[in-house]
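User: Show me a protein chain along with its predicted structure.
Assistant: Here is one chain, sequence first, then structure tokens.
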Amino acid sequence: MSTNVQRANETWEVFFRAQATLTLEFQRRGSWGDVLPREYRVLYALSSAPVGIRITELGEDALLSDAGISRLVARLHERGLVERREDPTDARAARIVLTPAGVKAQRRVGAALARQVAETMSRALDDDQLRTLRDLSQALLTSAEQAQRTRERRDLGWTSVLSQ
């Protein structure tokens, strides 16, 4: 195996383990109250969308499957944390928005989680290292998103060729 392949795989393994281990720590030590971590991901995604988000976009943003996001939104709706509104641009679609109770829950959990994340990340990394890690992670994310768009365009191209 080439050195580059080996180094890339070793780096991925450490990166993956660090992320998974920190996520578990946040889940165990977090001040979640009655909000589960995956529910918080949805509340967080909605917190920056005052007009709401379509459920498919919400699933992508919260990194959940279509079936998973549908069930999760239904549970959050039953608890009064989100509501469905008509999409003004598409009568067939709905937008999911936070209710006032949802805003309150997101802010409560978010403030506690922000403190925990800062404490956890800062115990091992100084400010320059945090900036470097952020920038490297953003580069990986941007590259993955570009690759996904390329695959989708290629798949659409094949679909249109096959339908002719």
